[in-house]
Every structure is written in structure tokens, then in C-alpha cells.
Amino acid sequence: MSTESKSKINQLMSITPRGVVLTSAWLTEQGYSPELQKRYRKSNWFTQLERGALVRSGDAVDALGGIYTLQTQLGLSIHPGAKTALSLLGKSHYLDLSMQRCQLFGFQAEQLPSWFKKHDWKLKVEYQSSSFLPAELGLTEYSYKDFQIKLSSPARAVMECLYLAPESQPLLEVFELMEGLNNLRPKSVQTLLEACTSVKVKRLFLYMAEKAGHSWVNYLNLDSIDLGKGKRQIEPDGVYIPKYQITVPKTLEAHT
To answer: InterPro entries given for it (predicted)?
Structure first.
């Protein structure tokens, strides 16, 4: 390998953390041509993860290393959310990653690239695109290995759980998650609730927060939150909650 090539590979190694994916398109944008990338693979500097994606040879790259690439190289808002975010933040006794499950959320129309979908991350990836919350609102930085990714803050993560409920997320389980969130900042919660477009999510969130007895609820301005009109039957043959005009499971209302 020429001195120039060695200099370029050293520069690349210095600006990219270990444990992440490098997309071929991004490398090309940084001045590393497809021919140079091919030489790096032949020299065993990099290994092809999937078509269009490389990793440092010998590097252990997991799903979070792939998510780093989605966010930093592809500019996507796709992030760990719902129970996965709560698990990573230590807010949940449901350890999704150890259970081989990773819940990802992205903004409407955002898609996972083929290399991410094709690769075997050794866990089940569940991806949900939606627009019920703004793409960048309520995210927090999470440090992992030598890099950082964005994931849902606890309040946003619970809202994402509620977005999935009750079809693919039991409401009683979400309430148990809500019970642990006793130190949320009212201003942040207020901003999320005002921006949220799902009436179901907002009504269930407030109902659960009040039921859990969280003091931060007292500092919310409900008049500024659009809770819609009319009744919402979340659970057939459930218990009707007049304040929020929702019908919830009997097991949830009876839970203490």
C-alpha cells in the first residue's frame, strides 16, 4: 500500500470510533473512492458487513453500532425507543436486549437501509415509523463503547409504548413502567404532550401518570394539551374513565 493510502487509512481510523458500521456511500463522500475501499478490504483493514457497509476487521459491531451509522452517516432519526430505550437507561426491569429484542422508532417515511435489515444482529429488530411525535423531540444521548447514539428519553419511551398499545404492548406492563418514572421534568413532559398528535397516547399517558401518583403531574397545564373530543374505547368490556373518556382494561384499573 502506498504512503498516501496509509496516511488516508490512518486518518479514517482516527475520526471513526470502533464498533460502528461505515457505509460505502459515506466513505465515498469523505474522499475514499470505491477502488480505495476495495484495496482496504484486500489489505484486511476492513471487512464487508453487507453490501454497501463495512466494518473494521476484527471489530465487534452490534445493533447499536449500526444505529450510530444510521444517525450520523445517513442522517436518520431512527433510534432505540419504547421498552428498549427504557432498558438501556436502566428504567425498566424488562431487559429487552438480553431477551434478543430491539425496538426502533423513526419518523414517517424513514426506512431502514437494506444492509441493516439483512444483517444478523443476533436479536429481533422491530421497526416502527410514525409521525405522532416530532423526529428530534424528547431524545437523549446514550454513551456506548467509544461512541454515542440518540435514544428516547423516559417520557418519550413510555409514549412510544402507548403508541404500540394495546395491539403489541400490554397496557398493564406500560403502567408498571410508568410507575418507575417519578422524577420526570414537568416542562419536558409538557412539551412532548403538546407536540403529540395521538389522542390515545396523551389520554393514556395522563391517566397512568395520575394513577401512579407522580407529583410532576400537578405541574402540567392540561389546558394547553389537546385531548380531542369524544370517547375512546381502548379495551372492549373494560372500565370507563370519565375524566379522560377512555375505556381501559379492568386489570389495569384494579391494579394498585
So the answer is: AbiEi_3, AbiEi_3_N
